Amino acid sequence: MADDESPEVVYEKRKVVRAGVLVRYKFIYPTAVERYPPGACYALHYGVADPADPPDDTEWPIGPEQGTMLRYDNDHGDGSHHRHVGANLDSEYEFPGSVAAVYDRFFRETGIEPFGPSPEDYDI
């Protein structure tokens, strides 16, 4: 893919997993592959469906604009990988080497049954 082409969204999914709480995730083959090790951009998000009105039994999210309770991403274009938990960035987090490993850890931590394809289905 040439740098002047639009990125290819490989997969993007949103699912309400319980009242007021959703999971959304995306895998993208970006045009500048070298900026997104391992060659794909990813974001896995577990948070409140409506940040302005989170469920009573849900810990307050990172911020009202995102409603994040747990997020993994490399959606920064600088080669960095992040794990956001509660109101903090997990400074001890190290990328395990594959997006599939992040995907597995994300669903294990949230306790949500994985849905949709795994990054392994796309070789990322």
UniProtKB/TrEMBL annotation:
Q: Which domain of life is it from?
A: Archaea
Region of interest: Disordered: 54-85
Record Pfam families? TumE (PF20126)
Q: Which InterPro entries does the annotation name?
A: TumE-like (IPR045397)
Full protein name: Uncharacterized protein
